[in-house]
Design brief:
There is one protein chain. The protein has about 210 residues and is α+β, with helices and mostly antiparallel strands. It has a single domain, classed as 3-Layer(aba) Sandwich (Glutaredoxin). The chain is built from nine helices and five strands. It has a five-stranded mixed β-sheet with strand order 1-3-2-4-5, with helices on both faces. Helix 3 links the parallel strand 2 (about 50-60) and strand 3 (about 85-90). Helix 4 (about 100-115) packs antiparallel against helix 5. The termini are far apart.
Length: about 210
């Protein structure tokens, strides 16, 4: 189901608008990850060095995750990450909210691996993640082309998409989320406590302030 069809279905159901990207179906491991051995191939994308830990579980094709990216994450960046008030950790939790969800996550890890260094294990992961979530691409060619926006050769992404290269990382992320009680996306956990309204900037910042 792509984002457009998801939103068309969700428009008539108030509950869906508040519950996130598993409202239409039970969260379960994507079929393409079922027989993949989990392996955290890459460092967890992490920003900030604060004492409060904020963990975000997202499906890049989820419209509510895209809302979180557009409305909440910039607040966290400006007010809490830049000042080292929090340590923000990204986890992929692919629920196939879009037909392209798995490909987007795989592509973002390809960009991370291509651009990371010992001093910067994120590389341009967060820049590419922002670009791909804003564009909401539907095809492999579109997903690969977006790599150029962060100065990465699109062929790097194409190779990862064709080889399912980072599926073990995505499977490991899924297991991590499941172990922590994640049932939908986006899920935001602040020092072990799940935020009830993760797309509400005030709800997330209040949870952070109370944890400090």
């Amino acid at each position: 189901m792509n984002r457009r069809s998801f939103l068309a279905t969700a428009a008539g159901t108030v509950a869906i608008a508040t519950a996130g990207c598993t409202s239409l179906f039970e969260a379960s491991t994507p079929d393409d990850l079922e027989n993949v051995d989990p392996d955290q191939q890459l460092p967890t994308p992490t920003l900030g060095d604060g004492t409060v830990t904020v963990e975000g579980y997202e499906d890049m094709g989820c419209p509510y995750c895209q809302e979180f990216q557009a409305d909440v994450f910039p607040v966290l960046e400006d007010e809490y990450i830049a000042t080292d008030e929090i340590e923000y950790r990204h986890h992929d939790f692919v629920v196939m909210a879009s037909d392209a969800s798995l490909a987007m996550a795989n592509a973002a890890r390809a960009v991370q691996n291509e651009t990371r260094t010992d001093d910067d294990p994120n590389g341009r992961f967060f820049d590419y993640k922002a670009a791909v979530m804003a564009a909401d691409p539907e095809s492999a060619d579109e997903i690969a082309a977006l790599a150029a926006e962060v100065d990465v050769d699109p062929a790097v992404v194409t190779d990862a998409l064709e080889g399912d290269t980072y599926y073990p990382t995505l499977a490991a992320n899924w297991d991590h989320g499941e172990e922590n009680g994640v049932e939908g996306t986006p899920t935001v956990i602040v020092d072990g406590e799940t935020v009830d309204e993760p797309t509400d900037p005030d709800a997330v910042t209040t949870a952070i302030d109370e944890a400090r």
